[in-house]
Amino acid sequence: MTSALTRRPVLVTRRVAPGVPKRLKPTRRLSVHDHDQPNARSVLLREAVGQAALLSTPADRVEAELLDAAKGCRSSLTTPLVNHLQGEQMSQSPIIVDAPDAPAAIGHYSHAVSIGGLLFCSGQLPLDPATTELIDASAPQQAERCLHNLDAVCAAADTTLKRAVRLTIYLTDLSEFRAVNDVYARWFGDHRPALVAVGVAELPRNARVEIDAIVALK
After folding, report:
1. CATH fold of 95-216, please?
2. Which of 23, 96, 135, 189 is most enclosed, with most CB atoms within 10 A?
3. pLDDT tens per residue, range 26-39
4. DSSP designation for 134
């Protein structure tokens, strides 16, 4: 009797559909175990893209051709492979986020860009969203306004600042960090995202505080 722990090796290959250049076909076969098949598909994709680099073929073209090839195959790996390649394409396509409830951008940048399950938020100044004017307040009060503005950006991407994985606080006076940190702590409560505090000589609009964030998407 074969042990339940015995892993049966299977042979993973890719059949190329008509019209796909033969030079993009993987040069070797991969021997993997049944439960490792998704990983094998990743290896096949990476191997083909690696060959493309040696042949000076654009990687995006290779990925598109592999996707077309997978659609043309009739095997037990067809559907998972197509889904895997489509997922790879989607995760590598940046999406610009425009947040109507946040202050308008004051330069050539977006409120945020989402890619790979993360939202990369531009720095938010303590501006009034309705007027885009700087609020004349203390550093802690300005920090709170920055956090509200960041949360508005997150809402536009269907997430929340409470899902932040990292924030950076820029201060023109680092002696005010303790007071600003108190506001930060009240905002996040038990959630403790990574944090960087940076002292700077000056900020746009003569603000005392600016905050940016990296946030996990839902």
Report:
1. 60s Ribosomal Protein L30; Chain: A; (3.30.1330)
2. 135
3. 444 444 343 445 55
4. B
